[in-house]
Prior knowledge:
Elements: E1 8-15, E2 20-21, E3 26-32, E4 40-46, E5 52-53, E6 65-71, H1 73-86, E7 102-108, E8 114-116, E9 119-122, E10 125-128
Parallel strand pairs: 1-8, 1-9
Antiparallel strand pairs: 1-2, 1-5, 3-4, 3-6, 6-7, 9-10
Amino acid sequence: MSTSTTASVSTHILDTSIGRPAEGVAVRLFARSGRKADWQALGGSATDADGRCKDLPALPEGTTHVRLDFEVEPYFAKKQADAQQDAPANRDSGASSVFFPEVAITFAVVPGEHYHVPLLLNPFGYSVYRGS
């Protein structure tokens, strides 16, 4: 039998539009035990100055699928407000420039494995991968 009966998850966010970590993004963690099972909300965190969530909740035993929900719209709204304050003539009618207001990433896990899932983010796109 495996020494660990659960998987573990970590994440970080890099804002590729500025080449820096995305600070203050709320991240919620969900788990389920099977493809057809209901999602269980486990809690959440927010990214720190290094773009990392260091205190995501542990996964329950039997978890087979994980979902990370990233609330990115408030992050980009703050960036847009800061930029507008610096150079208001460079902004249009005030319409949101965030195409993806939230990002939900779902992936399968197996007990005993660690899953680091970075999010590379910009206002009009994103990419994820399994890191180490």
